[in-house]
Design goal:
The protein is globular, with a radius of gyration of 21 Å. 37% of the residues lie in helices and 16% in strands. The protein has a seven-stranded mixed β-sheet with strand order 2-8-7-6-5-3-4, with helices on both faces. Strands 1-10-11-9 form a four-stranded mixed β-sheet, with helices on both faces. A hairpin with a 3-residue loop joins β10 and β11 (345-351). It has 373 residues and is an alpha/beta fold. It folds into two domains: 19-37 and 276-369, Aspartate Aminotransferase, domain 1 (Alpha-Beta Complex), CATH 3.90.1150; 39-272, Aspartate Aminotransferase, domain 2. Pyridoxal-5'-phosphate binds next to α4.
Length: 373
């Protein structure tokens, strides 16, 4: 007899990207920022450590909320802080999706959404992207009992009851593709949906477009953000949600009482205040991204137009093994992400690093294509 809930026992569990020892490999596999975060963030941590950590943090990260509210043109009660945006996504899933109810996500996209549904004992429906990385109309419609082509939906045990769709996740820009839907397209989806839509904007700073304006127009739209990618603070663990106060009021009940520690609140606040740092760093990463993208295309890879800090690279024919290329790069000290999506396809996701590291990685890819092993 097992003591474990059946939905936990049967799930595979989310597997994060590899984290080699410091200096062991050039990390281009988990979309971290290659540059050092704003010094203001480090100053804030040092100052707070000096003052001491004997007190509990502010439970809602009020200082951060004020700065974020000003930046996004909302009030502080439109913001909820999280221990990374993964924490935000966990809280949202727990707030909106009950056991056996339905959560929808596009496919292929961020695998964590499905894991969160599994933990919750909820069902998930993966709606496949079309060939041009747009979404079929079905994505914004009530779930069908038996959906058919031109989209594919993974089979659900017992089929989908049409009243059970409770939450939809949309990473925009998407991972692994780096592609983006326009604000108008997202608005159309939100307006049709019978439930809330979470736009996961982990990479929005690299895209230059954002659905935060939609949160103000449509009460069903929520936007999640992270400090991990564009602010170079993946190790800090800080993310936040922008949503209507009546939504935030409910999600605050679900979060751990002190889900963010004082150090991370202080550092995230200082980093967010340093928009000059963000602008300068993002500009550099975008320019490296453009070079990575065009060089990989020249080598013959299919690379959809990226609006993030990574590119999605797939070879047009089966005569190249993405996994072998990944291992070749790894043996030469470059870690990229080999992704295989069942019933869909595979490729390599390469994070934009410094100019030097990114160029060196592409040089290695070229050597592999020239027959080196
Ligand atoms: C990286 C990533 C996140 C998680 O960010 P954290 O704040 O580090 O938890 C969320 N969504 C997507 C799509 C991501 O790629």
């Amino acid at each position: 007899m097992s003591f474990i809930r059946p939905n936990i026992e049967s799930m595979a569990g989310y597997v994060p990207g590899e984290q080699p020892k410091e200096g062991e490999a050039v990390k281009l596999n988990t979309n971290e920022n290659p540059y050092r975060a704003s010094e203001k963030a480090y100053d804030a941590i040092r100052a707070l450590a000096e003052r001491g950590l004997s007190r509990y943090p502010n439970a809602v990260g009020q200082n951060f909320r004020k700065v974020a509210a000003e930046l996004f043109g909302v009030e502080p009660d439109w913001i909820m802080c999280g221990n990374g945006s993964d924490d935000i996504l966990t809280i949202l899933t727990r707030t909106f999706v009950g056991e056996n109810q339905l959560l929808r996500l596009p496919y292929p996209s961020y695998i964590l959404y499905k894991s969160l549904a599994e933990i919750q004992g909820a069902r998930s429906e993966e709606v496949y992207f079309l060939d041009d990385w747009r979404l079929p109309d079905y994505f914004s419609q009530a779930p069908a009992a038996a959906p058919t082509a031109p989209y594919r939906v993974n089979p659900l045990e017992g089929g989908a009851a049409s009243d059970s769709l409770k939450l939809v996740y949309l990473p925009n820009p998407n991972s692994p593709s780096g592609t983006v839907l326009s604000v108008e397209e997202v608005e159309k989806i939100a307006n049709n949906l019978p439930c809330p839509l979470v736009v996961d904007e982990a990479y929005a700073d690299f895209a230059g477009t954002s659905c935060v304006e939609l949160v103000k127009r449509n009460p069903r739209v929520m936007v999640s953000r992270t400090m991990s990618k564009s602010y170079a603070l993946a190790g800090l663990r800080f993310g936040f949600l922008i949503a209507r106060p009546e939504m935030i009021e409910q999600t605050l009940k679900v979060k751990d009482s002190y889900n963010c520690d004082s150090l991370s609140i202080a550092a995230a606040t200082a980093a967010l205040e340093d928009q000059d740092w963000l602008k300068a760093t993002t500009k550099k990463i975008i320019s490296t991204r453009e070079r990575l993208q065009s060089r990989m295309r020249e080598l013959g890879f299919i690379v959809p137009e990226s609006h993030a800090n990574f590119t999605w690279n797939s070879w047009p024919s089966p005569d190249l093994s993405h996994e072998e290329l990944y291992l070749f790069l790894k043996n030469h000290g470059f870690l990229v992400r080999y992704m295989k999506y069942p019933a869909w396809g595979e490729g390599l996701r390469i994070t934009v690093g410094t100019d030097e590291d990114t160029d060196a990685c592409v040089d290695l890819v070229a050597r592999y294509l020239n027959g080196e092993r």
